[in-house]
Write a structure and sequence with these properties.
By secondary structure, the protein is α/β, with parallel strands linked by helices. Helix content is 48%, strand content 12%.
């Protein structure tokens, strides 16, 4: 639909939510999807009514972009270099605003869109294993997702833990590996390691995830190689750090689109 009409509907949806209408009611009344209503409401919370508007589609001419091509390339090099901690959309936005003060005038949703477009262009968007599991043909994986996963989510909630999906892949054309954790609701945390991840690399990633989460983290994975390494196995056997690996049933196929790092043949 035209951008002006979309923005009018987004404003209406936010107003309905502020009146106490449910998400489903607001979405139905405005003819929008539930995720769009959620995004509009979050934009209002972060930046007020002006932030609710989306910008016209299409790439702006270079002179009108928030960053010059040289600035974009410089930031992508920074993003692609191994660094402590984990990258997330929130951290990327904060880093962009600090590196380029002119971006501080952008609405949060605009800054998020810029960061997402840049890291997607650089091939740094981690493939989401939740998507792979949902697309899997009917069979053992489908049965597990339908019958076992809901109960596992309840257990994690009762334990005060986050249930995230772990993924790892080599970056095409680069001597680096990307380790990532996916919430299943669009949020991802990731880091790069130079070459194959060492035990120190894995431990640094898990520790950074635990710090980011602020609560215990349960990581779903099919990579049974991890606890076989001495330091990783010893670390995982100590519950005080709050990070646990939960393995998918062995009969389930691995995610075909993920090129995993450090798997035994």
């Amino acid at each position: 639909m035209p951008v002006a009409e979309l923005n009018a509907r987004r404003h209406q949806a936010v107003a309905l939510r502020l009146e106490g209408r449910t998400l489903a009611e607001a979405a139905a009344a405005c003819g929008l999807s539930a995720p769009t209503v959620v995004a509009a409401h979050k934009a209002w919370q972060r930046g007020g009514w002006e932030a609710v508007n989306v910008r016209p589609r299409g790439r702006k001419p270079a002179a009108e972009r928030a960053l010059t091509p040289a600035q974009e390339e410089a930031w992508l090099q920074r993003l692609g270099a191994p660094a402590p901690g984990v990258w997330s959309l929130q951290r990327a936005c904060a880093d962009l605003a600090q590196a380029f003060p002119t971006l501080q005038d952008l609405a949060p949703t605009q800054l998020e869109g810029l960061a997402s477009r840049l890291w997607q262009r650089a091939g740094l968007t981690p493939p989401d294993p939740w998507d792979a599991w949902r697309r899997a043909p009917a069979g053992g994986l489908t049965h597990w997702c339908e019958q076992e996963l809901p109960g596992l989510r309840r257990l994690a909630h009762e334990a005060g833990a986050w249930l995230w999906a772990l993924s790892e892949r080599t970056l095409p054309g680069r001597p680096a590996c990307q380790l990532a954790a996916h919430s299943g609701r669009g949020t991802v945390w990731w880091c790069l390691t130079p070459g194959w991840p060492t035990e120190e690399g894995w431990l640094a990633f898990w520790g950074a995830l635990r710090e980011e989460a602020g609560r215990p983290v349960w990581l779903l994975t099919d990579n049974r190689w991890l606890p076989r390494r001495p330091r990783l196995g010893a670390w995982l056997s100590e519950p005080s750090h709050g990070v646990s690996l939960i393995f998918l049933p062995e009969q389930l196929p691995a995610q075909p689109e993920l090129s995993t790092c450090e798997r035994e043949p």
